[in-house]
Amino acid sequence: MTTAIAATPTVCLLHADIHPMTSECWGATLDWYLAHDHLEDSEARAAYQAAVERKMLDQHVRQQAA
Ligand SMILES: [Zn+2]
């Protein structure tokens, strides 16, 4: 049985969005994890999630202001 690698929407820090990731997206995500590799896995995941949410809010505010 073959399993197709579906383009699963993933939380993307680069674009502050949830979408199927490109290699550019994964690169930014990997860089973030490497920069935070002093954190426990679960802490890192939570911090990553928080970082994306902050960026999403940031962009949202900026769009409102524009
Ligand atoms: Zn992306």
What do you see in this structure?
It is a single chain. The protein is α+β, with helices and mostly antiparallel strands and 66 residues long. The chain has one domain. 58% of the residues lie in helices and 12% in strands. The chain has 2 helices and 2 strands; from the N terminus they run ββαα. The chain has helices at 23-35, 41-65, and strands at 9-12, 17-20. Strands 1-2 form a two-stranded antiparallel ribbon. β1 (9-12) and β2 (17-20) form a beta hairpin. The protein starts with 8 loop residues before the first strand and ends with a helix. The mean pLDDT is 91. Bound molecules: zinc ion. Zinc ion (ZN) is lined by residues 12, 14-15, 19, 21, 25.
What is the gist of this entry?
With 66 residues, the chain is of the alpha+beta class. Helices cover 58% and strands 12% of the residues.
Which compounds are bound in this model?
zinc ion
Coarse shape: globular
Task: Give the amount of beta strand, in percent.
Answer: 5-15%
Distance between the termini: 51 Å
Uncertain regions: pLDDT < 50 for 5+ in a row? none
Radius of gyration: 14 Å
Give the SSE order as H and E letters. EEHH
* SS summary, helix count: 2
Structural class: alpha+beta
If you average the pLDDT, what whole number results?
Answer: 91
Number of strand segments: 2
Q: Summarize the amount of helix as a percent range.
A: 55-70%
Instruction: Describe the main β-sheet briefly.
Output: 2 strands, antiparallel
